[in-house]
Amino acid sequence: MLTLNIQPEYGYVVLTAVGTCFLGTWHGMRCGAFRKAAGLGYPTPYADSAQMSAASAEDKHKLYLFNCAQRAHGNFLENHYMALTTLLIGGLRFPLLSSAFGVAWSLGRIVYAVGYTAKNKDNGKGRLAGAFFWLAQLGLFVNAGLTGYNMAF
């Protein structure tokens, strides 16, 4: 039988987890602003090559930035469930460490998204400034794995 005692510091984990959900909303709002600037209606998920070819240079750049914002949002969604799951699991044993990794992950995601849509960076290379989120995500994975190991053995 395993008895689970939740430490009071787990509240930080919950607050961090909720913060990541607000971050998803922020991503969506950014995409909406880039969509509006690009003049793309719903349900168009990305500006395609035909739209890019037909656009003026100025409009082409707006379409490109929308695509970058969409890709940053998609990458967030692809990684959010893993980060959120490992944040909540790892926080059971190491709540402050888990929360710190979660905050670092969130900050990395913001820098990643803003960098991806930097007007002066080609090919979305600005996103690389936020690549430190991968280290935070690795920390979350290891932390959750250690929590599971300590519970099992």
From TrEMBL:
Pfam families to which the protein is assigned, alphabetical: MAPEG
GO molecular function, one term: glutathione transferase activity
InterPro entries assigned: MAPEG, MAPEG-like_dom_sf, Membr-assoc_MAPEG
Membrane topology: Multi-pass membrane protein
Localization per record: Membrane
Any one cellular-component term (Gene Ontology): nuclear envelope
Keywords: Membrane, Transmembrane, Transmembrane helix
Spans through the membrane: 12-29, 81-108, 128-149
Keyword Glycosyltransferase: no
Protein's UniProt keywords contain Membrane: yes
Protein name: Membrane-associated proteins in eicosanoid and glutathione metabolism
Organism listed in the record: Aureobasidium subglaciale (strain EXF-2481)
